[in-house]
Amino acid sequence: MIEDDDDVSYEDARLLWVHVMRKAVEDFKSGSKSRGAESKKAYEDAKRWIWSDSEEFPSFIFLCEILELNARQIRREMSGYELSQRRQREGCCPDVLEQGRGGEGSEGED
User: Fold this and answer.
1) By percentage, how much of the chain surpasses pLDDT 90?
2) pTM across the whole model
3) Are 73 and 83 in contact (CB under 8 A)?
4) CA neighbours within 13 Å on the CB side: how many for 42?
5) pLDDT tens digits, residue range 8-39?
6) If phi over 0 gives left and psi between -120 and 50 gives alpha, with beta otherwise, what is residue 4?
7) By the 8 A CB rule, do 36 and 86 touch?
8) How many domains does the chain fold into?
9) Does some domain include residue 62?
10) Is 104 a domain residue?
């Protein structure tokens, strides 16, 4: 028997917001490597929501606070994921990108 309806409704709401957050991350990840129009729209919507500066309900930042998640860390990971997907599509890797930037060890330096 359920004794406290408030606890159940809070947990139900929390699970809903966890699902919203997961869906946004999934849409971002799948859309960043897809060429389909529907996936691209879901990706753009997720990206816009994740990087929004709004702190109002139901913004990304607001939900991160409710769920006790680090919004900056999630954004950092999403940026890294997006960059790695772009590099794969373009057929290059981090080592290739670092070569020829004029840093130490570049050919022709004395």
Assistant:
1) 54
2) 0.69
3) no
4) 19
5) 688 899 999 999 999 999 999 988 777 788 88
6) beta
7) no
8) 1
9) yes
10) no
46 assigned to some structural domain: yes
Cα–Cα dist 80/86, whole Å? 10
- Judged on CB neighbours under 10 Å (0-12, 13-18, 19+), 104 is exposed
Domain assignment present for residue 100? The answer is: no
Alpha-helical runs (H) found in 33-110: 37-50, 60-67, 71-90, 94-98
Task: State how far the Cα of 31 lies from the Cα of 20, in Å rounded to an integer.
Answer: 16
d(CA 104, CA 54): 42
- What does the alpha-carbon distance between residue 38 and residue 17 come to, in Å, rounded to a whole number? 23
Question: What is the rounded distance in angstroms from the CA atom of residue 84 to the CA atom of residue 28?
Answer: 13
Q: What is the pLDDT of residue 90?
A: 80
Token couple for 39: 């996936």
Tell me how far the alpha carbon of residue 54 is from its chain's centroid: 16
Question: Which residues span the domain enclosing 64?
Answer: 11-90
Q: Say how far residue 102 (Cα) sits from the centre of its chain.
A: 32
